[in-house]
Amino acid sequence: MLDFLGVGAPRSGTTSLHALLVRHPEVSLPPGKELLEPALGAWERFHALIAAYGRPGTRVGLFAPQFWTEPHLPRAFRKHFPELKLIVCLRDPVERVWSAYRMRWRRGWERRSFEAFVAAGLDPEALARACSKSFLLEGGDPAPHVVLGSRYAEMLSRWEAFFPPEQIHVLILEELVRHPERELERLAAFLGLKRPLDLSLPRENTTDPGRGQTLARLVYAVHRRWLVGLPRRLPPRAALAYNALLFRASSTLRVRPDPPPPDPGVLARLRAFYRDDLLRLRQRLGRPLPWKSVP
After folding, report:
1. Parallel, antiparallel, or unpaired: how do β-strands 59-63 and 85-90 relate?
2. What's the predicted TM-score (pTM) here?
3. What DSSP assignment string belongs to 52-117?
4. Contact indicator for 74, 206 with CB cutoff of 8 Å
5. CA atoms within 13 A on the CB side of 83
6. 37 - beta bridge partners?
């Protein structure tokens, strides 16, 4: 049984939370994030993976921020895990888009300028397609899905359509950094943990350009060229170990230096785009939001 799901948003601290919670004795998490079986509809396989890493008497969880914008998954998770608790991690929406672009640029997955990336992401027709289509199943241009992921009120409403408010915990990264003891205490209470969470918040997914790059590039290149379907053919424990290796390789992968700093005009365009959505989010949460993007 899956007790909780860290569902997003990508580039909002979910990797750090995974690294923090995986050390807690009352929590069971896989060694790597982002098992894709639910997105593929492989629920029997997913239950087998949960059984492989879930320890009796613990809260069994998964962090999979890439599920955040998948339109078919809220209903599917409600069907398979009606008591599931959701952890929703958010950060300044414009900074999140820049962070996602910078990650893709560093890893060699993106060649467009940030201005061109944002322009593609804000295209109305592309955004409409991203709202209704699964990126994990159908692929396509990642830019609209990255931009869509920062429409927090809209994405949150998809999950709220199937899960009641008491099963959803919204955690804002800037508040976690500023008040870690308070925010982690609230998270522990939400998950029903008896012991407090460690206050030493690890910094994860920050890409050190000098460590393990040759190995990371080799592992990731071999996987993408020949072994993409291998984890689904391995026994559950072996698949989890392989997924952990791949996750670590992709987290440290860096083939290029940082892109040029973003143009202030592009950032202003994004802030204007998110304005109304953030007003709805502020009303939904009933508290101020610590972001420049909020009017």
Report:
1. unpaired
2. 0.90
3. HHPPTTSEEEEE-GGGTT-TTHHHHHHHH-TT-EEEEEE--HHHHHHHHHHHHHHTT---S-HHHH
4. no
5. 7
6. none
Please indicate, yes or no, whether residues 192 and 99 belong to a single structural domain of this protein: yes
Angle at 100 between CA 227 and CA 98, to 5 degrees: 160
Task: Find, among 12, 273, 8, 265, the residue nearest to 127 by Cα.
Answer: 273
Query: Is 293 part of any domain?
Result: no
The total number of structural domains in the chain stands at 2
Domain of 264 in residue numbering reads as 4-207+254-285
Nearest to 68, CA basis, from 135, 155, 173, 178: 155
User: What would the two tokens of residue 274 be?
Assistant: 């998110």
Dihedral sign for Cα 79, 146, 251, 26, please: negative
Helix 124-132 vs helix 142-149: crossing angle, to nearest 10: 80
> Each residue of 203-224: pLDDT tens digit?
555 544 455 666 666 666 666 6
| Positions of the chain with pLDDT lower than 70, given as ranges | 34, 200-228, 253, 295
H/E/C letters for each residue in 191-246? HCCCCCCCCCCCCCCCCCCCCCHHHHHHHHHHHHHHCCCHHHHCCHHHHHHHHHHH
